[in-house]
C-alpha cells in the first residue's frame, strides 16, 4: 500500500479552556464559511436529535472529509453519535483507502463497509463483463441493501447543489421511499431551517449538510481547518491514457485499449470516485493554496472534467438519483 | 466575505432566466462544460441562439415541458460577496415555490417587463416577499432596450409599484432599469441610461447592508441537542447545543430556561474551535450554564427581562403547500424552532387573494398555494415572537401526520 503524503500537521485537538474574556468582540459578522458551517452543524444536530439511526457516508473524498469534520465539530466534545459508512466499489485508489482507515481511527468512529463486490458475489447485481467497466451504478444496490440491513433512517451525503443541475433541486432533507427512490417532482417544501424528517419504517431521509457549499468553499474550508486530504488531490506524476477527452490513470482497473497511447503526465484529481470512471486533470498544483487558485480560475465543473458517468446523457445524474444513488 | 441569499421571482418570458444566466456568466460561475451542454441541447431542439433557461431547468420533465417546476439553487461569487440564488419559477405552484425561496432570503428580486408594466404577478411577488419579511426588495425593470431606454417608462412603473408597495410591509425598495439580454445595468452602469443615477444590479447586491437585518436584541436560544460525553474525563460536561435565533449570548449573562422558568448564568459559550466571547444569529454554538438545570431539546434560553410569548393559542398567516386542502378543526404536527407538538386549526378567519389583497371571510378551506389567517391551538406551549420581529422564532411548519407531507408554512402574528 502506498503512503498518503501528510500535507498538513495532524488535526490539532481542540483547546478545552481559553479565557474567553481575552477574545476580541466581533462586529456581529460571520464569514461565508462560518455561515455555511453553522448551517451544516445545525443540520447534523437536527438529525441526531430527531432520527433514530443516522449514518454518514465517508469515502475519503474531499466532500466527505469536510462533512466528517463538520460532524465532529457539531457534537464536540462528545464523540460522533453515529457510524460512518463507505460504499466500496472495490475499484479504489489505494491512497484514499489508506487515508480512510487512518482518519476513521483518528476520529474514533465505527466504520461500516458496504461492498459492491459482496453484492456481485451474492448475485444481487451483475457486473458489466467488459474490461474496465465502472461499478458506479452498481453502488446504488449495495447502498440500499446496507441501509436496509443496518436499519439506517438517515444517511448523510456530501453532495452539493452546485455540482450538477439535478442536484440543484435537491432538498437538504431528501425523502426516500421504501425503494430508496427520489421523486424530484414531489419533494417536500423546505422552509426556513425547519426540516421535516418524518418517515415510515422502511423509508429513509438522505441529508445533505453541504448543500449550499461550492467546490471552492470546500477547498477553502480544507485550507482553513488544515485538513489532511489524500495525496491524489495534489499534483503528481502518473501514467495515463487520453480517453473521451479525459485523462484516465493506468492502474489495476484501467488498462490501455488497443491504439491508446500511454503517456506520463503531471496530474491531480478534482473528485475521487470509482477508479474506472474518475479522471485526472493536468495540474501542477502541489499545495492547497495552488489548488484553490486553480479551482477559482477553472472554467469547467468538477463533474464535467472528471466524471465519465455523467456524460452518458443530460439526465444521467437525475436518473441515477431516482434509483437511489447518492 | 459575507453570504447573501436572494430569491428571484418572475413570470414567463420576463427574462429571469436570461438575467440569472448573465449574472452567473459575467461572474464566471457558468462553466464551459455547462454552457456546451446547453448549446448542444438548444441546437438539438432547433432553437435559435443559446437558451440560458436550460442552465437552471435541471430536471428532465422541466426540459421536456419547457417549464421550471421547482426551486433551483445557484451559486456565484464576486470578490465582495458569495451569493446563493433561490430561483423560483413563476407559474407552476408559484406561491409554494416563492414562499420556499423567500423564507431564507435576505433579498428578493422581482422582474417587471418594461413593455407590460406591472402585471398581476408583479404584485403577487412583491406581496409574497413582504409576507415572508424579506428585508430588501429590488425591482428590475427589464427589457429597457425594447422601450428605447425611456426614462418616462421607468419612472411610471416605479411610481406605480411604489404606490402599491405602500400597502405592503416593505422596508427597503429599490428599482434598477436593466436589459438582461444586453447587460445594461446588470454588472456595470449602462451608457444607455444616463438619467439613471443608481447602481448596477450586481453592485447593489454586493453593497446592500444586511448585517442589521438580524435581530440582535432579543436573546433567543432554542435548545436543539444536549451534549453529554459519556467519557471519564468529561463526565460532568453538559452543554446545550443550538443555533442562536436572536440577540447576543455572552458568558456571565443571566438566562431563564423555558418552560421551567429556572434561572442560571451562562458559564461559557463554546464551539469546537474554543470558547467565544459572544454568540449571535446564525451561529451554531454550545451554551454551558453555571447551574444544573433540567433543560432539554425544545426548551428555550432567553433573558429574564426579555422573554418571548409563551402560549398555546397562536394567530398566524399560513401558506398552504399541498394538494389536499386544509381541514378546519384538523390536527397537524407543528414544528416551531426545535419544538414539536400537535396543532389544531381551530379557525380560518379569512383567505387572502394574493393578487388583489382582498380578504375572503367566507372561505372555509385553503387549497394549494392559498394563503389565509388561522387560529391554532397547540398541545404544548410555544415560545414565539411575532414573525415580523424575528423570522426564526416566528415561523413554523405544519406536517400531515398521516402522509408526513409538509402541508403549510406559517408566520406568527402578534398575540391578540
Q: pLDDT under 50 segments of chain A (min length 5)?
A: 1-25
Assigned CATH architecture of the largest domain in chain B: 3-Layer(aba) Sandwich
Structural class of chain A: alpha/beta
Distance between the termini of chain B: 42 Å
The geometry of chain A reads as globular
Q: Widest sheet of chain A: strand order? A: 3-2-1-4-6-5
Question: How many beta-strand elements of chain B?
Answer: 23
CATH architecture descriptor name of the largest domain in chain A: 3-Layer(aba) Sandwich
Largest sheet data of chain B:
8 strands, antiparallel
CATH class of the largest domain in chain A: Alpha Beta
Oligomeric category:
heterodimer
Q: Roughly how many Å is the radius of gyration of chain A?
A: 20 Å
Strand content of chain B: 25-35%
Instruction: Name the average pLDDT of chain A.
Output: 84
Compute the CA-based radius of gyration of chain B.
24 Å
What's the helix-strand series of chain A?
Answer: HEHEHEHHEEEHEEEEHHH
| Corresponding CATH superfamily of the largest domain in chain B | P-loop containing nucleotide triphosphate hydrolases
Quick structural summary:
The complex is a heterodimer of chains A (326) and B (416). Chain A has 326 residues and is an alpha/beta fold.
Amino acid at each position: 500500500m502506498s503512503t498518503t503524503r501528510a500535507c498538513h500537521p495532524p488535526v490539532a485537538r481542540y483547546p478545552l479552556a481559553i479565557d474567553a474574556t481575552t477574545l476580541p468582540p466581533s462586529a456581529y459578522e460571520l464569514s461565508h464559511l462560518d455561515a455555511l458551517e453553522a448551517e451544516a452543524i445545525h443540520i447534523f444536530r437536527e438529525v441526531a436529535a430527531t432520527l433514530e439511526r443516522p449514518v454518514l457516508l465517508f469515502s475519503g473524498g474531499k466532500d466527505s472529509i469536510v462533512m466528517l469534520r463538520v460532524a465532529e465539530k457539531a457534537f464536540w466534545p462528545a464523540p460522533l453519535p453515529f457510524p460512518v459508512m463507505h460504499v466500496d466499489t472495490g475499484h479504489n485508489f489505494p491512497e484514499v483507502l489508506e487515508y480512510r482507515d487512518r482518519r476513521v481511527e483518528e476520529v474514533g468512529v465505527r466504520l461500516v463497509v458496504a461492498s459492491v463486490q459482496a453484492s456481485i458475489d451474492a448475485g444481487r447485481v451483475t457486473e458489466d463483463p467488459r474490461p474496465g467497466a465502472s461499478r458506479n451504478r452498481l453502488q446504488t444496490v449495495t447502498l440500499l441493501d446496507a441501509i436496509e440491513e443496518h436499519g439506517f433512517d438517515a444517511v448523510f451525503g456530501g453532495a452539493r447543489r452546485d455540482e450538477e443541475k439535478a442536484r440543484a433541486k435537491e432538498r437538504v432533507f431528501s425523502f426516500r421511499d421504501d425503494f430508496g427512490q427520489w421523486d424530484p417532482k414531489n419533494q417536500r417544501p423546505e422552509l426556513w431551517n425547519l426540516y421535516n424528517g418524518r418517515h415510515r419504517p422502511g423509508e429513509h431521509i438522505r441529508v445533505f449538510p453541504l448543500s449550499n457549499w461550492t467546490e471552492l468553499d470546500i477547498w477553502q474550508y480544507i485550507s482553513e481547518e488544515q485538513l489532511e486530504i489524500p495525496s491524489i488531490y495534489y499534483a503528481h506524476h502518473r501514467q495515463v491514457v487520453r480517453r473521451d477527452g479525459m485523462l484516465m490513470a493506468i492502474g489495476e482497473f484501467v488498462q490501455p485499449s488497443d491504439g491508446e497511447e500511454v503517456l506520463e503526465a503531471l496530474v491531480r484529481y478534482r473528485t475521487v470516485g470509482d477508479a474506472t470512471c474518475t479522471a485526472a486533470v493536468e495540474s501542477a498544483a502541489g499545495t492547497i493554496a495552488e489548488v484553490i487558485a486553480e479551482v477559482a480560475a477553472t472554467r469547467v465543473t468538477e463533474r464535467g472534467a472528471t466524471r465519465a458517468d455523467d456524460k452518458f446523457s443530460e439526465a444521467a445524474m437525475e436518473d441515477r438519483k431516482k434509483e437511489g444513488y447518492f | 466575505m459575507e453570504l447573501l441569499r436572494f430569491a428571484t421571482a418572475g413570470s414567463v418570458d420576463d427574462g429571469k432566466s436570461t438575467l440569472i444566466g448573465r449574472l452567473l456568466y459575467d461572474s464566471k460561475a457558468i462553466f464551459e462544460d455547462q454552457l456546451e451542454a446547453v448549446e448542444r441541447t438548444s441546437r438539438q431542439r432547433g432553437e435559435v441562439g443559446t437558451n440560458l433557461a436550460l442552465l437552471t431547468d435541471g430536471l428532465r420533465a422541466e426540459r421536456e415541458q419547457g417549464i421550471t417546476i421547482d426551486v433551483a439553487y445557484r451559486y456565484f461569487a464576486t470578490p465582495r460577496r458569495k451569493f446563493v440564488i433561490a430561483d423560483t419559477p413563476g407559474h407552476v405552484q408559484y406561491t409554494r415555490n416563492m414562499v420556499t425561496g423567500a423564507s431564507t432570503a435576505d433579498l428578493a428580486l422581482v422582474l417587471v417587463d418594461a413593455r407590460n408594466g406591472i402585471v398581476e404577478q408583479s404584485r403577487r411577488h412583491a406581496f409574497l416577499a413582504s409576507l415572508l419579511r424579506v428585508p430588501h426588495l429590488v425591482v428590475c425593470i427589464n427589457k429597457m432596450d425594447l422601450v428605447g431606454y425611456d426614462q418616462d417608462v421607468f419612472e411610471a412603473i416605479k411610481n406605480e409599484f411604489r404606490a402599491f408597495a405602500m400597502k405592503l410591509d416593505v422596508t427597503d425598495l429599490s428599482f434598477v432599469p436593466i436589459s438582461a439580454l444586453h447587460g445594461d445595468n446588470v454588472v456595470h452602469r449602462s451608457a444607455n441610461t444616463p438619467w439613471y443615477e443608481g447602481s448596477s444590479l450586481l453592485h447593489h447586491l454586493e453593497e446592500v447592508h444586511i448585517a442589521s437585518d438580524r435581530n440582535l436584541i432579543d436573546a433567543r436560544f432554542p435548545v436543539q441537542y444536549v451534549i453529554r460525553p459519556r467519557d471519564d474525563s468529561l463526565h460532568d460536561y453538559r452543554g446545550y447545543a443550538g443555533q442562536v435565533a436572536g440577540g447576543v449570548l455572552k458568558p456571565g449573562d443571566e438566562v431563564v430556561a423555558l418552560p421551567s422558568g429556572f434561572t442560571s448564568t451562562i458559564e461559557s459559550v463554546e464551539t469546537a474551535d474554543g470558547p467565544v466571547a459572544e454568540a449571535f444569529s446564525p451561529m451554531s454554538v454550545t451554551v454551558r450554564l453555571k447551574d444544573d438545570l433540567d433543560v432539554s431539546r425544545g426548551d428555550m434560553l432567553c433573558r429574564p427581562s426579555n422573554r418571548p410569548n409563551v402560549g398555546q393559542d397562536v394567530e398566524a398567516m399560513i401558506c398552504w403547500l399541498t394538494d389536499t386542502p386544509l381541514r378546519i378543526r384538523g390536527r397537524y404536527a407543528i414544528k416551531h424552532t426545535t419544538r414539536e407538538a400537535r396543532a389544531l386549526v381551530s379557525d380560518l378567519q379569512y383567505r387572502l387573494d394574493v393578487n388583489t389583497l382582498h380578504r375572503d371571510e367566507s372561505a372555509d378551506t385553503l387549497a394549494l398555494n392559498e394563503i389565509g389567517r388561522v387560529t391554532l391551538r397547540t398541545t404544548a406551549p410555544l415560545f414565539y415572537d411575532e414573525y415580523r420581529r424575528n423570522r426564526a422564532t416566528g415561523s413554523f411548519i405544519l406536517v400531515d401526520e398521516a402522509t408526513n407531507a409538509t402541508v403549510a408554512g406559517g408566520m406568527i402574528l402578534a398575540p391578540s
